[in-house]
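REQUEST ID: PR-0412
SUBMITTED BY: lab tech R.K.
PRIORITY: routine
TASK: structure prediction, single protein chain
INPUT:
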Amino acid sequence: MKRIFLFIVLFGIVSCKQNITESDVSNLNGYWEIEEVILPDGDKKEYKVNETIDYFKIENNKGFRKKVMPQLNGTYLTNDIKEDVFVEIKDGNANIQYKTNYASWKEEILELTNEKLVIKNQQELEYHYRRPAKFSVK
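STATUS: complete
OUTPUT:
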């Protein structure tokens, strides 16, 4: 009986991960802000306000990610610093591979829809992103 329960729990955990396809990758394009980070021990860190937002531009699984700063007039302040990105999909698993002049690393995409992005890095930190709410003060 315990084995059946353990199997059901493990199956539930494994089946919660989204099967990412090539057509899902286009959902990565645009602006994303961190909503929360789940630490390896299960603790959560919530982000109520973000000073920077990630901007992805991907075509044919290649592109870049930039950090941008939202401004009060609804625009974004940016600079020329960007990370080259390659999205690799294999057997339903998707990884984002990043490269700069100084480092390279990868993150696993756990969930990707038009409104939600969840990635896990090599330190087992799970980042939950949402689309930022549009605002302006005029």
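NOTES: Helices lie at 2-15.
REVIEWED BY: pending
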